[in-house]
């Protein structure tokens, strides 16, 4: 059984001499709860030194190391816990090790550990959900859907599993199934902007542009501080609808979040060109080139804008650079305008 945390009044920084392994363990739990992670590790070290077969102390120390981003150290501790107590259902050491392996992008290793965790706890919704995510990362999409479905079966309120299953269905071009999953995720958790954002992306794939704009807008409304991508993709949709002033506004908002995004400047340049703001177009292509100097398409299009402003010399220089970068259309432009 899991140990019940005992609240003990301790002087945390002293009086460790003479403590038992259990007392060090309990002190480690308290320090971890108080966010003194390094202090907790010191206590777990003492507990393990006094009782090297304490699987729970290894497991808790692994969790503390994980908190400090020491993935490899955490894995060693979880492994020790598993070797000492391989069939403990309450300790969750397999689940904890799987999480670290996933973080290190060892997805197959993570899947193996999540599978063992599920064997010990067959109705663990979170383990199914996490294994589904690992399977998605190795492109086992049908396996991922099966795991997300189990996660939902054992926890029908698992909005994340619905959202993640929707993502995989979208990968498989099951767009209607994807939208249905995002819609349930929204019902369960209407304050998670990711659900609206992902549904918007799927509506965009179905060319439901107005529906996509509504969902991107809701994503922005729900979480304005994490809306850079929503502004960017809403701008793309507005461009599709020929609402170029709206697109420019949204690209500008996106740039506030991602000032080094060459894609935002590139697409804003195109929108400005559609509005006949040729100098603004040139300025944005120039910024695109500054951020992505190997972007031959940006040189090509800046050259076109220069020509439209009767700046033929600048246009030819840009097309020459574009051709140097492998853009075949630039060669035609040079032949037509620069001889």
Description of the molecule:
The longest helix is centred in the N-terminal third of the chain and has 14 residues, at 37-50. Helix content is 74%, strand content 0%. The chain has helices at residues 21-33, 37-50, 55-67, 71-84, 93-103, 107-120, 125-137, 141-154, 159-171, 175-188, 193-205, 209-222, 228-240, 244-257, 262-274, 278-291, 296-308, 312-324, 328-337. The chain is elongated and about 90 Å long. α1 (21-33) packs antiparallel against α2 (37-50) and α5 packs antiparallel against α6. The protein contains 19 helices and no strands. It is mostly helical and 339 residues long.
Give the beta-strand count.
0
Rounded to an integer in angstroms, the radius of gyration calculated over CA atoms is 28 Å
How much of the residues is beta strand, in percent?
under 5%
Helix content: over 70%
Distance between the termini: 84 Å
Order of helices and strands: HHHHHHHHHHHHHHHHHHH
Overall mean pLDDT: 93
Rough outline: elongated
Give the biggest beta sheet: none
Number of helices: 19
- The secondary-structure class comes to mainly alpha
Low-pLDDT windows of residues: 1-16
Please name the defining characteristics of this protein:
single chain, about 350 residues, mainly alpha, disordered N terminus
Brief account:
This protein is mostly helical.
């Amino acid at each position: 059984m899991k140990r019940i945390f005992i609240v003990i009044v301790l002087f945390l920084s002293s009086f460790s001499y003479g403590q038992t392994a259990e007392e060090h363990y309990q002190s480690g739990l308290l320090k971890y709860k108080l966010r003194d992670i390094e202090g907790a590790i010191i206590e777990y070290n003492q507990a393990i030194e006094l009782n090297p077969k304490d699987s729970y102390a290894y497991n808790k120390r692994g969790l503390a190391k994980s908190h400090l981003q020491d993935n490899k150290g955490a894995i060693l501790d979880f492994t020790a816990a598993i070797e000492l107590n391989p069939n403990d259902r309450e300790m969750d050491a397999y689940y904890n090790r799987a999480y670290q392996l996933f973080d290190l992008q060892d997805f197959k290793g993570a899947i193996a550990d999540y599978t063992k965790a599920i064997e010990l706890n067959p109705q663990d919704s979170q383990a199914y959900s996490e294994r589904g995510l690992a399977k998605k990362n190795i492109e086992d999409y049908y396996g991922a859907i099966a795991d997300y479905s189990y996660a939902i079966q054992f926890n029908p309120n698992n909005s994340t599993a619905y959202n993640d299953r929707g993502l995989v269905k979208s990968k498989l071009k099951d767009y209607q199934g994807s939208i249905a999953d995002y819609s349930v995720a929204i019902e369960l958790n209407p304050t998670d902007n990711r659900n609206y954002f992902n549904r918007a992306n799927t509506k965009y794939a179905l060319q439901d542009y107005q529906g996509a704009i509504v969902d991107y807008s809701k994503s922005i409304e729900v979480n304005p501080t994490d809306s850079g991508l929503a502004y960017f993709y809403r701008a793309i949709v507005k461009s599709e609808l020929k609402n170029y002033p709206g697109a420019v506004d949204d690209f500008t908002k996106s740039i506030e979040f991602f000032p080094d995004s060459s894609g935002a400047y590139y697409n804003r340049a195109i929108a400005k060109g559609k509005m006949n703001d040729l100098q603004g177009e040139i300025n944005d292509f120039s910024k695109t080139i500054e951020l992505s100097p190997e972007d031959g398409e940006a040189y090509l299009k800046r050259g076109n804008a220069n020509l439209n402003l009767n700046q033929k010399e600048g246009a030819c220089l840009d097309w020459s650079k574009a051709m140097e970068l492998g853009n075949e259309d630039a060669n035609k432009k040079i032949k037509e305008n620069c001889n």
